[in-house]
Every structure is written in structure tokens, then in C-alpha cells.
DUF7918 domain-containing protein
Amino acid sequence: MPINAATGTSCTINLLPPPPTTTSSSSSTDQIPAQIPCKEYKHETTTDPTTGAIQETVTIESQQACPFEILIDIKPTAYSTLTANSSSRSSKIKPQDYVIHRILDGISAGYQKLSKTKSHRLVHMTKTSSRDKLSFRRFQFAPITLVDPDDYETPNQGSRNPTDTICEDEEVIKSLGTIQVDVIRADLVHRLRKPAKNRAAPAPSTNQMKFSERSKKARLLNTAGLSDTFPSNGPPRPMKWHIKKQDPKPFLQFVFKYKPRAILEDEGTIARDPSQADQINQNIEDDDQDAHETDRKPSLKRIKSEATIANDHQIRQKKKQKIIDLTGADDSD
């Protein structure tokens, strides 16, 4: 998992098993299922030129269809540790509240609020909830939907369902293949939950969007977005953490660039499976053999045809009174 050396903060993507098909009790749904950490490659630490945040970037292998979770381990003193002056570090280190912003393929997937009063450091994020907390959508990899743009050129696209049109948002297209986690310093207050107003329809994620098959991102094979909507198991808690204020920009970012295995092999990031390499070589040999046999057939036909003509001539010389019609014969191999 990528770890920020200065603060000890880490973040990782875990693959999860498919959700149960039957409705389970609230106690069982609160349990975290078995996770499989995504294999990570090419870890690098940089500074984001736009936000000034420390950015930890890794490449991971994506999956065609699989729920996943974002697991972050952060200390309440992470911000102070990162920004304190080395000469007076001990006097400035203090706990802070944080807001964790999840961004999937350039689209916001909600926030997680972390209070400095909480003793635990590990935070499992597997879903995003609606404003009224009555429904939720899971984080999920899904096969990318590619279409021919000629089939979607209509004069009145503005009246169509957004999921029935090709995505033309340049920011989303540019961000395909990325899962980003922003850590933002904030001040939180604990107070009564207010009833949610104007519940909006769930916004489509890249899992529900269509993309041009001519796009360079078509090789990604899948997207990282949200699942369909599921009803929540119970009413929301009466109290919640509200954001009193927060910094305009994150101070720490984790970026996961996901790619299918085929691309990682082509790039040389991971070694190709030896069994697959042997099969590829065998297919090449078979193709070469087929090509050789194809090249030999015309010469074989010519030789056989010449022999047949000579033989027919001898027969006619010996038995001119009997003529055999060979015009309908098949002299091919």
C-alpha cells in the first residue's frame, strides 16, 4: 500500500466478494467481508502543482466486475506532522479533523468525515449514501461500455437520458482509469441530523456511462464507479458530524491508476504469464505452418495437373475409340 513517509498515512484498494443475494440482518452487514488487496506497482511521491498537496501515486491491476473498498489509515496529527516547522515541531503537533473526498474516474463519490476524537485509525469506505441515508451505492469495477458514436448522433441529445448518450465530458474522459482520495483538514461539529431536503436522483457514474469506441481510453476495458442503488437496512443515526469549515485544498492525496493486466504486460510493468506466452508462440508456429501449406498447394496442383494431362494423352493414343469426359472431375487436393 502507498504510505506517506512523513505522516505514516497509508491507503489501499481492496477487492471484495460479491454482495449476498438475500437481505441480511444489520449486524451481519456491518461486518467487513474478506478483502484481497490490489497488487501495486510504480509507487512514486510527488507534489501536485495545482493544490500543492503531497501526492502518493501507484498503479494497480483492475478487475472486470468486482466491488472494492478504499481503506485509509491516518493519524489525527498527520496534518501537523506534515506542515510543522522542524525547529518547533513539538509545539505545533496537534490533532485535527479531516474530510476524505473520494473521486472515481473524475466524478465525486462522496465524503467521509473523520473526527480527531475517534480512537480508531483504520477507515473502511465501501459505498456512498444518499443525502437522506435511505439508500446507498457500492464502489465497484465494471466493464466499460463502448459504442459507435455514429449511432448516437441525434439532433436533440439534450432531451435524452444521460445514460443513453456518449460521455463528452473531457475531465471525466481524461480521468478514466484513476481512483483518487483527497485528505482535507477541517473543523467538525457533532449535532442533530436535519431532515434531508430535495432528494435528487442518483447521478450516473462511469459504470452507467457510454464511451466512444474510438477513444484512446477504450483499451482500459473497465471503469471504477458506483453500483445500482440499494435500500439502507435501517433509519439514519440521529446525530452526525457536520463540517463547520474546511481548507479549500487537500494537503495529502492518494492516486491509484488502474489498468487491465494485458496493458500492464505490454508496458512491461508485470511479466507475462509463461503458459500464455507458450500458447502465443504455439499459435504463431501454427499460423506459419498454415501459411507454408497454403504456399505449397498451387505448385502441387500444377504438378498434378501436368501429370494428369500426360496420362490422358497416353490413354487416348492407346484407346482412341473410348473417350472419358474428365471435365467435371475435381483435381484439387
